[in-house]
Description:
This protein is 30% helix and 20% strand. By secondary structure, the protein is of the alpha+beta class. A hairpin with a 2-residue loop joins strand 24 (495-496) and strand 25. The longest helix has 21 residues, at 403-423. The radius of gyration is 25 Å and the shape is globular.
Amino acid sequence: MSAPIEDYALLSDLETAAMVGRDGSVDWLCLPRFDSPACLASLLGGPDNGRWSVAPLGGGPCARRAYRPDTLLLESVWETATGTVRVTDFMPPRAGLPCLVRLVEGLSGAVDMRSELRLRFHQGRVVPWIRAVDRCAVAVAGPDAVWLGVDGPVRAGGAGDASVCDFTVQAGRRLALTLVWAPSHLPEPPAPLAVPAETLLKETRDFWRRWAARSSYEGPWRDAVMRSLITVKALTFAPTGAIVAAPTTSLPGHVGGERNWDYRYCWLRDSTRALHCLLHSGYRDEAAAWVDWLVRAVAGDPADLQAVYGVGGQRLLPETEAPWLPGYEGSQPVRLGNSAALRFQLDVYGEVLDAFCTSLRAGIPMPAHVWDLVEAMMGYLQRHWHEPDQGLWQVRGERRQFVHSKVMVWVAADRALRMGRMLGRNGSSGEWRALRDRVGRQVCREGWDPVQRSFVQSYGSSTLDASALLMPRLGFLSCRDERMRATVRAMERLRHGGFLRRYASAGGGTHSVDGVRGPEAAFVSCSLWYADALAATGRVEQAREAFERVLAVRNDVGLLSEQWDPVAGRQLGNAPKAFSHIALIETALTVGAAGADRAPGRNDRAGSASGTAARPGTRRPVRGSAATPRPG
């Protein structure tokens, strides 16, 4: 039986990540990068698909665990009949080869411990050859080698397909186990094995504390926001600045169903929201690094723009299946790669130009050729904006005239005009203004349902879609516009156990919109958008309640997956999900600012140098914006 998704904590070295269960087992690890094949994959199968367990000999979950404050050092404590032991797990930020350290410390009495490392390279499939070299164990298969070093006495054992060692830790004593990946053609033990674990611990602790100290957030939910910021940072591929959507693949949106996707890549949608969060939270360097990645990734013909890229900006992400993995709780297929890279999405043009505009306003240096890219994208949109696409949710069904996609065309034109004014480049402003106004009028006419009293998912549809809640944040309509207030009220029909679905569910059959079988739970990000919209429309107490309802379903170390099932009371989908944590940060800023506005002496929502500046959705629409047209 698989452990609940909420049982897992995250470790990261800013190039890859590990998932550690409450039982002390690392059940997911891809080496050497986020998108590399997994060498520990029991998360999607069982022990024979690879895991590394360090726990008391009797097994069982830890009594308690937590990250050290403002770090990604995980401390798990077991209380046994013979004593108490603490395991500190961490991955030092990459300075060479990837490294995972497990530091075992006796707190009282004496505890018999076992480390069992069962490596399975190539996505939990290939059993390596294991041998001893200079007091280390090394497992080799093809291009990969994993070395395991121990800095104290152990009793080695195990079969040929695993490395097992038993040891006893007494009060006040420590023993460290260090795992290092290296290319298999390198003959010598890798350098990290020679560095004392205490040194690596101190360096890792100091790195995260220095990073956390840069945060400008001073609101009432500091611990939750800081944990989300650290999580977003942990999902950053440091060499390029890219941010992966999640470190996992194929954790299901419906247990036993086929809504299982590989999220170890970079969605422009997710990362653009991350840019806003980083800038508003004091992390300008990370924001600038992401913009650099974005400029490189989207370079080329605008017709070839994708919704998702690899961490290096690579475009080919072929989607395959892994039939040898039974899947999380039997949820198949297990997918590797993501065909979303092949979907046609108009919204990504707005995401890119919004990111460029935000960066320019923040004073982040932009390459001179970016303006050529802006003009090329706008030229493409002028020819293709009217076409149906596959939308924000990347549906696998037929293309439609999705309202959110058209709103993002409006955003693209609006941000291009703003950038033109900032840069003194107004040669095409008349055409772009005409496009913006034409799209705005069309959305307000075709995307508004007078019966539902709401903006809907697509033209001619009566289906509600939570993406309509983003209109004020994007500057498309003022939060004071009665159409937005009515839309926020209508979204209550998407509520599921106090949370929000992304759109109406079709039950257990094939969904008419996305073409995939099976129901879905509530989406964490959509639930937070709802809280954000409540705050923006003046319903501050309800917004706070909705926000704190989401905070309550974080796991014991503050992590959120993509979805929450309020019936089963469990997390679903890939975890931890960058989009969920990004939405948490943004909503904390919005709800906090709205609460401050209602305080005595506060009647203005102007930004401040503390990082709580109003986002694009809270500013007044510019002249000629979509706030002008009326539906009908």
